[in-house]
Amino acid sequence: MDLPTDIIFSILAFLDPNQDVGTLWACSMVSSSFRTPAQIVLFSKSGIKLKTDEHFSRFQRLIHSSPHLRDSVKILSLETNDQSLLVDVLSLLPAVTSLTLSAASNTVQDLSIEVACALKEHTFHTLRGTLHFDRIQRIPITALVDCSPLDELRFDSCSFIQPEAITFGILPSRLAVRHLVISNSS
Question: How many other C-beta atoms lie within 10 A of the C-beta of residue 79?
């Protein structure tokens, strides 16, 4: 006999998705009635970090085999030197509200215009929380203007194409951002 789904979600509410990842994974294996609720809690409250092509391939297979997860992932951290993955990942995850894009392995990397445009396209639809760039170089900053409202736009150890857009107020006046954080960037 299966427990009702609302009871299962009530049980899972006692777990912290950031602290009890192993327990949530174990719950997803208990029975078919626990699988979907445990996966939804796990993916909606904790960040997904994709570092390699293999991580992405496994994640892609998981999303295709469990389509209910597409709308569960809200926080995404992509650490890669292959920025084309960003476009692919965002197309798989329409409900992402917070995104971190980092260069892999303590390297720095240019942000391509194509990726910036794809990112802008996605932000018009779903991104509402945080957009965070880490160790990304030559960000086409004007490509990010007129995006949807964000709680925070963060740049750590980044550089920009047309940095004067920030200095002379063009960017801040055309961005609906509650917090703009620029650290160790030029």
Answer: 18
